[in-house]
Amino acid sequence: MNFDLIITTYNRPKEVSSLVTQAMGCDPAPETIIVVDSSDEENTELSALNGVRYIRSSHKNQPYQRLLGALTSEADIVVFLDDDLDIIDPEIFKILITSFVDSQTVGATVNINIQSFIGEEFELPLLKRDSKIFKFISWLTSAKLPPRGKSGRLGIVGGRPDQSQNTEFFSGACMTFRREIIPNIIPYSLISLYERKLGKGEDKVISMFANRFGTLKYYHKICLMHPPNDSSYYKNVQDFFKRVMYSRLYLSKVYAKVFSHSLVKEILIYYWFGIWRLMIATITYFAKPSKTRKDKVLGILNGLWLSLTLPHKPEKITPGINWDVEIQKDLARASNS
């Protein structure tokens, strides 16, 4: 059973080159390392490297880049890794690929030592997450945390399992799938959300859809490290909470579809949750005013407004883009390079 490694990257030439070198030193090593790069400048070092298929993406869009990479692969299995990871166990691919001996397995992942973090000043909560009041509010607003390894409504998932077992979701940093299911688990609606920078939780969407095709495996052994790299993703507080709020409705729709729940019920729960989130954020702002808390209120409000005015459909989100055409253009450029 052969496998390719797909790395999607944007403006991290040193990190992605380091990861490629590490992957080549693993046992077994990927048959081909596919780097899908949307960076401002071409990485000439990687494009000239044997064993690497270097593809330029015309869209700075991670789910699009994932799909583009998978469509250029001819392997049975594709492994997706974030470009800023460090491999700390050279047998990582052996662990992942062995999972697929079971014909029911369609996806696998390993444990990651995550050192990235969001600063405490980002959300500025007044309540601790382990407090009884916080847990009561979570229950009241339908934001109950699922058991470990389980997916829930609103894009909420349980913690990582504390042992190797089946799971319902993956972290986007490391996801491995049978290549044949990829076109069915990365929908154009998700790609459109990220094109407009309105998406959040793409790993949850992709792995939830994968549950429709078989079993997802989680291995508790730590094989990767995610260093504390700085990210601009959380810098704009208002934009971040707009994304989160708007995406929760999309995630709830996927949850209803995959796990056979009532779509109407999940939509109603979303708006119940959203109203409570807005109320709590507003009360928190007036209790202890700050620009961050104000931006959070505005972000939630804007996200709710978008959920009412912008349907989660590619033709509505990105009306000027035909994703079939875009993919074929990039595939043609890749084959001619």
Word description of this protein:
This protein is α/β, with parallel strands linked by helices. The chain has a single domain (3-315, 322-336), classed as Spore Coat Polysaccharide Biosynthesis Protein SpsA, Chain A (Alpha-Beta Complex), CATH 3.90.550.10. It has helices spanning 13-24, 44-47, 62-72, 92-98, 132-140, 182-185, 188-195, 202-210, 237-258, 263-287, 291-309, 314-317, 323-336, and strands at residues 3-9, 32-37, 52-56, 77-82, 86-87, 105-114, 165-167, 174-178, 215-226. Strands 1, 2, 3, 4, 5, 6, 7, 8 and 9 form a nine-stranded mixed sheet that branches. Helix 2 links the parallel strand 2 and strand 3. Helix 8 (202-210) packs parallel to helix 9, helix 9 (237-258) runs antiparallel to helix 10 and helix 10 (263-287) packs antiparallel against helix 11 (291-309). The protein is globular and about 60 Å long. The model has no long low-confidence stretch (mean pLDDT 92).
Give a summary of the structure in a few sentences.
The protein is α/β, with parallel strands linked by helices. 44% of the residues lie in helices and 17% in strands. The chain has 13 helices and nine strands.
At the fourth level of CATH, the homologous superfamily is Spore Coat Polysaccharide Biosynthesis Protein SpsA, Chain A
- Taking the alpha carbons of the first and last residues, their distance comes to 28 Å
Mean pLDDT: 92
Give the biggest sheet: 9 strands, mixed
Rg, please?
20 Å
CATH-defined architecture: Alpha-Beta Complex
Query: Shape from CA axes?
Result: globular
The H-and-E topology, N to C, reads as: EHEHEHEEHEHEEHHHEHHHHH
Unreliable sequence segments: none
Secondary structure: number of strands: 9
**Helical amount among residues, as a percent range?**
40-55%
Q: Return the CATH class.
A: Alpha Beta
